[in-house]
Amino acid sequence: MAADLKGRVALVTGANRGIGFALCRRLGQEGMTVVLASRDQSRGEEAAAKLCEEGLNVVARQLDVTDHASVDAAARWLEATYGRLDVLVNNAGIMPNKASVLEATLEDAEAMWQVNALAPWRVCRGFVPLMLQGEWGRIVNVSSEAGRFDRINAVATAYRVSKAALNAYTKSLASELHPKGVLVNAVCPGWVASDMGGPDASRSLEQGSDSIFWAIALEDDGPTGGFYQDGKPMPW
Q1: CA distance 179 to 126
Q2: Distance between CA atoms of residues 180 and 191, nearest Å
Q3: What is the pLDDT of residues 107-128, one digit of tens each?
Q4: Closest to 4 measured CA to CA, from 30, 26, 28
Q5: Is-contact 137 181, C-beta < 8 A?
Q6: HSE toward the beta carbon, residue 224, CA cutoff 13 A
Q7: Which residues contact 130 (CB under 8 A, 6 or more apart)?
Q8: What is the signed CA dihedral for 128, 129, 134, 139, rounded to 10 degrees?
Q9: Longest dimension (CA), the chain
Q10: Facing residues of 58 across strands?
């Protein structure tokens, strides 16, 4: 049985398109208030308007996950506007190239490290205090099987390293928050037909978002500190 999410507040980063947008739709359909966060406010407002036309309670909020000031401002706004946060999905991520170990530049590594690994850390530092006030929460870090140690090879090195780091952060955060009523898991949505995955991907946006939704709808005694796809545990 899934948790009752109706009336709860969720924030999804990188949500103006792709998996994040599909997830916002799903959460809105569950009766949640959804904050659709995106770096570009105009694109976020355009995306939120589409979901509002479907009768969903979705509001756009500008959020640059690589900027401390932007995260802090969004956290203050969220507390002043809703006074709570129940679900946080660190969905924003990039893979500008698939350069190999020797081809990847430190600039590549820095860019992916900032967005894929440090940004979820930064966002959690900004928003988790508000979540803890409600003594209930779900945090989902959108990861990738590319970061699994048994799958790491010489292709897309910077991306793989950033996702492996995100997985490690997930386990550490879950350990700290479990006694406080917050479940934290990493989820691989799979190879999804998004801007990042490309048109030849084997899974739809809805399938990818459903995989994430599973970790959001966990009952209070559900798992935490794990790595999942479609509700099934994956090796690290």
Answers
A1: 20
A2: 33
A3: 999 999 999 999 999 999 999 9
A4: 30
A5: yes
A6: 20
A7: 75, 78, 79, 84, 85
A8: 10
A9: 50
A10: 34
Catalytic residue among 82, 159, 169, 228: 159
Burial class for 152, CB neighbours closer than 10 Å (0-12, 13-18, 19+): middle
Cβ contacts of 212 within 8 Å, gap of 6 or more: 19, 23, 89, 91, 140, 142, 187, 189
Alpha helix (H) residue ranges in 82-192: 106-112, 119-133, 157-177
What integer pLDDT is reported at residue 204 of this predicted model?
A: 81
Where the chain has pLDDT below 70, the residues are: 1, 191-193, 195-198, 201-202
CA distance 21 to 19: 5
> What is the reported pTM?
0.95
- Which residues in 65-77 are b (16+ Cβ under 10 Å) and which e? bbeeebbebbbee
Active-site residue flag, 159: yes
Tokens 């479609």 belong to: 230
Q: Quick count: other Cβ atoms within 10 Å of Cβ 223?
A: 13
Q: What is the dihedral of CA 186, 182, 11, 30, to 10 degrees?
A: 90
Domains for the chain: give ranges and CATH numbers.
9-233 (3.40.50.720)
CA 180 → CA 130, 168, 176, distances in Å?
Answer: 12, 20, 8
